[in-house]
Amino acid sequence: MIAEPKFMPMSPQDYLAWEAQQHEKYAYVDGEVFAMTGGTIPHNLIALNLASALKSHLRKKGCLVVMADVKVQVSRHGPYHYPDVMVSCDPRDKKAIKLIQHPCLIVEVLSPSTAAYDRSDKFTHYRKIPTLQDYVLIDAEEISVDRYRRIADRHWDLQTYLAGETLDLPSLDWEIPLDHIYEDVPLSSQDSADDNEAP
Fold this sequence. Notes:
Blueprint: E1 2-5, H1 12-19, E2 26-29, E3 32-36, H2 41-58, E4 64-67, E5 71-73, E6 80-81, E7 85-88, E8 99-100, E9 105-110, H3 115-119, H4 121-126, E10 134-139, E11 144-152, E12 155-162, E13 166-169, E14 174-177, H5 178-181, H6 188-196
């Protein structure tokens, strides 16, 4: 999640040096830094469920699965973001310590305050990463997942998955039922349904 910009514009090099000294995480876009705010419990559980399943599937396959505390570098000049889940199978990221540069999968868990940005400007940034094959957006309020898959350099295919369906990630030779992604996740849509039930 992204809050309002906090400081005056700075260079990418200054941002990296400055953020390393901070106690909080900051995204970097066009010279501005943005404090990263905490997420909800459903947001966290969705990311954890997916990351855990990915880690199990990719064990011993030379891929790195990381979560929200790891930033991605779109280019040397930025932007820098903190996706909810990332996978890199690129040897250049194998021993990465501070950031990922060559992800093949980026996942964002949507919240009402970030959904529009994740679908538009942030996706515009991520599309510039040559190694990225799949961009996945997961709704934290109802069972719904959008997967953008790179078809060609500037062409992406959108597939929407709903309750009872299975998310397909051919780039990782992997599928996962949405029920597993949303396991133990309290959804606001369920609360609304419960409110409508007779006592």
